[in-house]
Amino acid sequence: MKYAVIDRGDPLSKKLAEQFHTLVSNKGLVQDDQSPEIVVSIGGDGTLLQAFHLYMNRMHDVAFVGVHTGHLGFYADWQAEELEELAELMTKHEPQRVRYPLAQIDLDTAEGVSTYLALNEFALKGVNGTLVAQININDEMFEMFRGDGIVISTPTGSTAYNKSLGGAIIHPSIPSLQIAEIASINNRVYRTLGSSVLLPEHHHCDILSRKEQKLLLTIDHVNIERDDIRAIRCSVSDLRVCFARYRSFPFWTRVREAFLGYDVK
Ligand code: NAP
C-alpha cells in the first residue's frame, strides 16, 4: 500500500514522522507522496486540514489517519505513544473506511465559476466592515444578513468554528450543512433568524453580496479576498472524505473526551 506522511513541522511531529517511516519500511507500505492511498497526518486537526487540501484532488482514492501531538483531536485521534501500534495495524490489517460529508462552495465571479471543497467549513466576512448579504435557500430569498459574517460548516466541522458560534454538533452520518451567524445585527430595521439552520443534502443556499463589497472567504484554513463575487452557492458535495479506522472511536466519545474531559478508557 502506498502512503504519505504530513507533519505539523514542530520537532515532536517531525520526529514521529521519521519514526513512522522506519516502523513501516520493508513491511508492505511504500512511501509515495504523489499518489498515496493512505495519508498519515501527524500534529493536530489543523494538520489534517492541510493534508486534506493537499490531496483534495484524490478524494476517491485516499484515506486519512490522524495522530495528535498536542491534545485529542476530531480528525487526529491516535496518540504519539500509540504510533508503533498504529504502524503495526497498518502493515497487517485492512482498515474500516468511514466516509464523511464535505461542503462544496461554488464561487460565481466575472471569470466564471470556481469550485472548492471544505472539510470543516466555509466562512464569509466583509473585509472593510459589516457583511451585507442576501441568503437564499433553495432559490428563494430567506433573509438579508447584516453582521460580522456567516459560517457554513460540515458535520465534522460542527465541532470547530461552528461550535464557538453556538451551533449544534452534528453527527457525521447526517449529510448536511449548518449555517451559523457571526454577530448579526438585529433591531427594528435589520432582522435575521438568529439561530443556526441545518440544510439536508438535497438543499442548497446561495449568498448574494452587495456588488461593491470586498469579501474575505475562508475555506477551512485557506483565506481568499475578492471583490468580484456575484454569488456563492453552498451545498453538500457528492464527494466524501474517507478516514481509515483501525479501531473504533465513536464520535460521541470524541466529543465527550475533547470537550468535557471525561476519559472512561
Ligand atoms: P488555528 O486557529 O490554528 O486552530 C483552530 C483550532 O481548531 C485548533 O485547536 C484545531 O485543533 C481546532 N480544530 C480544527 N478542526 C477542528 C474540528 N473539526 N473540531 C474541533 N476542533 C477543530 O487554525 P487551524 O489549525 O488552521 O484550523 C483552522 C480551523 O480553525 C478552521 O477550520 C475553523 O474551524 C477553526 N477556527 C475556529 C475559530 C473559533 O473557534 N472561534 C475561529 C477561526 C477558525 P488542533 O489544535 O488539533 O489543530
Task: Describe it.
Helices cover 18% and strands 44% of the residues. It has two domains: 2-95 and 246-260, Probable inorganic polyphosphate/atp-NAD kinase, domain 1 (Rossmann fold, 3-Layer(aba) Sandwich), CATH 3.40.50.10330; 102-238, Probable inorganic polyphosphate/atp-NAD kinase, domain 2 (Tumour Suppressor Smad4, Sandwich), CATH 2.60.200.30. α1 links the parallel β1 (2-7) and β2. By secondary structure, it is α/β, with parallel strands linked by helices. It has a 16-stranded mixed β-sheet that branches. α1 runs parallel beside α3. Bound molecules: NADP nicotinamide-adenine-dinucleotide phosphate (NAP). The site of NADP nicotinamide-adenine-dinucleotide phosphate has 18 residues, from α2 and α4.
List the helices and strands and how they pair.
Blueprint: E1 2-7, H1 11-24, E2 30-31, E3 38-43, H2 45-54, E4 63-68, E5 78-79, H3 83-92, E6 96-109, E7 112-118, E8 121-126, E9 131-137, E10 140-153, H4 161-164, E11 176-184, E12 197-200, E13 204-209, E14 215-219, E15 222-226, E16 229-245, H5 251-260
Parallel strand pairs: 1-2, 1-3, 3-4, 4-5, 4-16
Antiparallel strand pairs: 6-7, 6-16, 8-10, 8-14, 9-10, 9-13, 10-11, 11-12, 13-16, 14-15
Helix pairs in contact: 1-3
